[in-house]
Amino acid sequence: MGKRYSTIVAIVIILCTYSSCNKVNEGVQVVDTDAKNIISAGLSEVFNISNYVILENTVPLINRIGKVIKTKEFIFVLDFAFDGSKVLQFDNRGHYLKQIGSVGHGPGQYYSVADFAIDTINSKVYIASLGSVLCYGFNSEFLNSIIISGEDELHSSVNFITSLEKELWVFTDEMVPLKTENIKWKYYGKLIRFNDRFKVIDTTKILEASLKADWFGGISANILSVLKDNMYVYFPILLAEPFLRDTLYTFNNLQKIPAIKFDFSDILVIDKNIEYNTSNPQKILEAQLRTRNITIRSIYRTERYVFVNYTNIKFEEFLFCYDLVERRGYHMAGGFTDDLFKTEKIINLIPINLQSGEFCFVKNAYEIEEIYTGVNENSNPVIFFIKTVE
């Protein structure tokens, strides 16, 4: 699959309140992030309290939860485990039911999981693994699979999938090596739509870029925000391009239309003269970091709020939250202060249902063992569900 740049270690989410200069430029709403103005804010500024679920212990214990999908009956989690990523199924009270499929390299197995999706209409689980998508029933029965490949199969991968009614949307990365002095790779981001029988409906190229370095990163998860009247998309490339991808697009009839641009000009620094004349991974990384001091990793929205997750040159992560109703935004140093569940700081929010503004966050047992009865250092993580004030 080539070398992938995905080194983000320290995660610090920042939120601040500011007076936004909110304007429209040729039909695009431009939001001044006022990124230098940083204060603290609690969850209750944006969210209401909901509930939490203590996940029953599994063998082995869950290592790290990367994604959560909640249905009326079940909670599905993606566990980035040491022995191979896996999708686990719990009931809505947190009782462990089963692992979906099995980890391995044989028929009907998966190993490296990039994403997963749930089709509640047909009770199916889709798992994206490298260049394939595998389909299982809720009872863990393997149903079928399909290989997603481009012009260069070795450098193609599935990065994000979602189930919309009776369709499966698959977002893919494709890296085509070029034999030119300045351009090492040609990057293509594509959307492939399947029906519920795994038949291709259409394929659309949604992103194209020329890359100078041998290290690259592609589309991140949670790039599609499905709302009642429209859907919104953000297409990041996780490397230091000499510009900032700062726009959230509407996605209408498979066409990208710019919707909201986030202005980070007061802190953005770009050096377009960086050279990549080296094959040393560390020096390539250093060159990428010098190219641009900000990388936006995801932008997604609810009916009322837009969330922009970005990192700086020190690998610290920030979250800018913009209130479309009040026309004001927030940054917060170190994460949200949890004034709802009293678990101190929140460093990561996982979208559950953006139409209704539902999110969750995960706390490891050792972080809250003195706060919640029945939780100790040998317990699985706890999932806290919250909902935006719409």
Q: How many strands, which pairing sense, and closed or not: the largest β-sheet?
A: 6 strands, mixed
Share of residues in helices: under 10%
Query: What is the 3D form?
Result: globular
Total strand count, please?
A: 31
Q: Enumerate the spans where pLDDT stays under 50 for 5 or more consecutive residues.
A: 1-21
Using only C-alpha atoms, the radius of gyration works out to: 21 Å
The DSSP helix count reads: 2
Query: What's the N-to-C terminus distance?
Result: 42 Å
Average residue-wise pLDDT: 84
Strand portion: over 45%
Across the major sheet, the strand order is 2-3-22-21-20-19
Q: Which structural class matches the secondary elements?
A: mainly beta
Describe the protein:
The strands form 8 sheets. Strands 2-3-22-21-20-19 form a 6-stranded mixed beta sheet, with no helix packed on it. A 5-stranded antiparallel beta sheet has the order 1-26-25-24-23, with no helix packed on it. It has a 4-stranded antiparallel beta sheet with strand order 4-31-30-29. It has 390 residues and is mainly beta. The model is unreliable at 1-21 (pLDDT under 50). It contains 2 helices and 31 strands.
